[in-house]
Protein backbone atom coordinates (compact mmCIF):
# COMPACT_ATOMS: atom_id res chain seq x y z
CA UNK A 1 0.00 0.00 0.00
CA UNK A 2 2.47 2.63 -1.17
CA UNK A 3 1.78 5.98 -2.68
CA UNK A 4 -0.05 6.35 -5.96
CA UNK A 5 2.06 6.27 -9.12
CA UNK A 6 1.64 8.60 -12.07
CA UNK A 7 -0.51 6.01 -13.87
CA UNK A 8 -2.89 5.80 -10.92
CA UNK A 9 -3.28 9.60 -10.85
CA UNK A 10 -3.90 9.63 -14.60
CA UNK A 11 -6.67 7.05 -14.24
CA UNK A 12 -8.22 9.01 -11.36
CA UNK A 13 -8.17 12.21 -13.43
CA UNK A 14 -9.79 10.48 -16.41
CA UNK A 15 -12.55 9.04 -14.19
CA UNK A 16 -13.19 12.47 -12.63
CA UNK A 17 -13.35 14.06 -16.08
CA UNK A 18 -15.83 11.42 -17.24
CA UNK A 19 -17.99 11.76 -14.13
CA UNK A 20 -18.21 15.55 -14.02
CA UNK A 21 -17.63 16.51 -17.62
CA UNK A 22 -15.30 19.23 -18.80
CA UNK A 23 -17.81 22.02 -18.19
CA UNK A 24 -18.09 21.35 -14.45
CA UNK A 25 -14.40 20.71 -13.72
CA UNK A 26 -13.56 24.39 -13.03
CA UNK A 27 -16.52 24.61 -10.64
CA UNK A 28 -15.44 21.42 -8.85
CA UNK A 29 -11.86 22.67 -8.58
CA UNK A 30 -13.05 26.03 -7.19
CA UNK A 31 -15.24 24.27 -4.65
CA UNK A 32 -12.36 22.04 -3.54
CA UNK A 33 -10.11 25.08 -3.17
CA UNK A 34 -12.67 26.90 -1.03
CA UNK A 35 -13.18 23.81 1.13
CA UNK A 36 -9.43 23.45 1.65
CA UNK A 37 -9.19 27.13 2.60
CA UNK A 38 -12.00 26.79 5.16
CA UNK A 39 -10.45 23.64 6.61
CA UNK A 40 -7.07 25.36 6.93
CA UNK A 41 -8.64 28.38 8.65
CA UNK A 42 -10.55 26.17 11.10
CA UNK A 43 -7.42 24.18 11.93
CA UNK A 44 -5.51 27.42 12.53
CA UNK A 45 -8.31 28.68 14.78
CA UNK A 46 -8.29 25.48 16.83
CA UNK A 47 -4.52 25.67 17.20
CA UNK A 48 -4.72 29.31 18.35
CA UNK A 49 -7.48 28.45 20.83
CA UNK A 50 -5.39 25.63 22.24
CA UNK A 51 -2.32 27.85 22.56
CA UNK A 52 -4.37 30.54 24.33
CA UNK A 53 -5.79 27.97 26.75
CA UNK A 54 -2.31 26.61 27.48
CA UNK A 55 -1.03 30.14 28.08
CA UNK A 56 -3.89 30.92 30.50
CA UNK A 57 -3.28 27.64 32.28
CA UNK A 58 0.43 28.37 32.70
CA UNK A 59 -0.33 31.89 34.00
CA UNK A 60 -2.74 30.60 36.63
CA UNK A 61 -0.42 27.81 37.76
CA UNK A 62 2.52 30.12 38.55
CA UNK A 63 3.29 30.53 42.25
CA UNK A 64 2.18 33.74 43.88
CA UNK A 65 5.47 34.24 45.80
CA UNK A 66 6.26 37.46 43.88
CA UNK A 67 3.26 39.22 45.39
CA UNK A 68 4.69 39.34 48.96
UniProtKB/TrEMBL annotation:
Top-rank taxon: Bacteria
Transmembrane intervals: 6-25
Region annotated Disordered, chain positions: 44-68
Keyword list, A-Z: Cell membrane, Membrane, Protein transport, Translocation, Transmembrane, Transmembrane helix, Transport
UniProt main location, coarse: membrane
Subcellular locations according to the entry: Cell membrane
Biased composition (Basic and acidic residues): 44-60
Protein's membrane topology: Single-pass membrane protein
HAMAP family membership: TatA_E
Family listed: Belongs to the TatA/E family.
Role of this protein: Part of the twin-arginine translocation (Tat) system that transports large folded proteins containing a characteristic twin-arginine motif in their signal peptide across membranes. TatA could form the protein-conducting channel of the Tat system.
Subunit note: The Tat system comprises two distinct complexes: a TatABC complex, containing multiple copies of TatA, TatB and TatC subunits, and a separate TatA complex, containing only TatA subunits. Substrates initially bind to the TatABC complex, which probably triggers association of the separate TatA complex to form the active translocon.
Protein name (Swiss-Prot/TrEMBL): Sec-independent protein translocase protein TatA
Natural source organism: Saccharopolyspora ipomoeae
Amino acid sequence: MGSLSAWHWLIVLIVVALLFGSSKLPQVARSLGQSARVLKAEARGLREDEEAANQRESETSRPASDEN
